Amino acid sequence: QVQLVESGGGLAQTGGSLTLSCAASGLTLEYYAMSWFRQAPGKEREGISCVERDGGTLYADSVKGRFTISRDNARNTVYLQMNSLKPEDTAVYYCVSPGYYCRGYTRYGGNWGQGTQVTVSS
Question: What is the Cα–Cα distance from 54 to 35, expressed in whole angstroms?
C-alpha cells in the first residue's frame, strides 16, 4: 500500500522559513515525479511545485524564487524548502506523485494524504 506522509509544518513569521518533508512507503520515489500542492482556507487546492525523476523542477509563479523542491532517493523522501514566507502561504500542504512526469501535474486527480498545516503570521 502506497503511503505518503507529510511533516514539518507549523507556525512561522512573515519572512521566515520552514522545510516540509514527504516520506514514502510502498513506493520507490526514484521512479516517479513528485509534487507539492497546497489548499488555503476557502480556496481550491493548487499545485505549486514538481520535481522530475532527473531532478528537473517546476514552480508556480506564486512560489517561484522562494520555495525549493528537492528529492533524496536514498531516503525515499521529497522536501519543500520554503523561504521568505508570506501570510498567503498559509495552507495545508500535500505531496503526491503525478506519475512518471511532471507535465500536467496540476491536474492530479488521485488520492490525498493528511497533509501538513503551515501557518504564517503577519
Answer: 14
| Cβ 4 vs Cβ 24: under 8 Å | yes
Among 22, 20, 34, CA closest to 89: 20
The pLDDT value given to residue 28: 94
Write the single-letter amino acid at 57. T
Cβ pair 117, 8 in contact under 8 A: no
**For residues 42 and 18, what is the distance between their CA atoms, to the nearest angstrom?**
23
Low-confidence ranges of the chain (pLDDT < 70): none
CA gap 104, 108 in Å, rounded: 8
Distance CA 50, CA 59 (A): 7
What span, in angstroms and rounded, lies between the C-alpha atoms of 118 and 111? 20
- The pLDDT value recorded for residue 1 is 87
